[in-house]
Amino acid sequence: MSHEFLNVELTKIIDSLQSRGKQQITGALLGELIRDVAPELDIRSVMGITTGSGVLSKFIARHLSDTLTIIGKQGSDTIYQVNPSVTGHHIDGNREFWRAFVNPQSHNFIVIQDSILQLRAKAGKVENTIDPAIGIESATNSELEEIRLSFALSLGDKSKDLPEIKAPYGEWSFALRKLGGEFTRSWTEYRIQHILNLFELKLEKQGIAPETRTKLREILRRSQLANKAAFSASKSISRTTSNTTSEIKKDILLSESSFRNVIANAIQKLPISDLRELKLPAGLLFDALTDLNKK
């Protein structure tokens, strides 16, 4: 099965999900939808699972995780939330491709089988003599440091304001942000392009054909974009939550102020006999008398 075919079928499925007008779908209905809109797509063949259950959920986790999120159960069936499209076009694969490659400590690594990117746990070592899949090792710490070093050197005199390359990445990037937003933006794009170059170099060392390397590089790039979109969405949700919390606090303060005004207005209308019956803390009365004496 070619990458182009799989990409077309995934686009059909995603477009159909997002045009249904419903935000939720069960696993059973999802299976029917896939059979209707992509009848030539063999999920078992895509996943390499010929028998057994759970193939649909694994297919979703690998290829539709940006579109579908598990939100609950209906009996033994899974209920999925259909997420809105984050861009005007389909973003290939799931975000884990990028995470697996750029994180040396990732529990997963990328393998290529039939020109399609897949993820495997690092415990499942690829033996090329019997396994048709080709393993692509994650970027190493030294390779990532080399990218940082080459960028720092490109800054010229400005690089003297940055910590040593061996410094923790958080400390180094914080110092970079202090140089100004343009440097942060330049670094972001520089890092992405050089990581993609590194990925393509690793593909070349494995004997992957140039045309296929270009396609796989684009898949990794789209995976990076999916991570960026998800991060932006989470920030947007966080801002919305923060604004909502602020509004609630404001409403509470307004309610307290209104309540105090009502109480003060009511007390002013009480006769002296009723005022003498009010139970007020002695400290408040003392503070009030002190304020009167100051006037």
Would you mind describing this structure in some detail?
The structure is a single chain. This protein has about 300 residues and is mostly helical. About 60% of the residues lie in helices and about 10% in strands. The protein contains eleven helices and six strands. The strands form two sheets. The chain has a three-stranded antiparallel beta sheet. The chain is flat, with a radius of gyration of 30 Å. The N and C termini lie far apart (about 90 Å). Mean pLDDT is about 80; it is low at about 85-95.
What sequence of helices (H) and strands (E) makes up the elements? Answer: HEHHHEEHEEEHHHHHH
Q: How would you state the average pLDDT, rounded? A: 78
Strand content: 5-15%
Tell me the number of helical segments per DSSP (H or I, 4 or more residues long): 11
Calculate the terminal CA-CA distance, rounded to whole Å. 89 Å
Amount of helix: 55-70%
The general outline is flat
Major β-sheet, in short? 3 strands, antiparallel
Radius of gyration: 30 Å
The assigned structural class equals mainly alpha
> How is the largest sheet built, in terms of strand order?
1-3-2
Q: Let me know the number of strands.
A: 6
Unreliable parts: 86-93
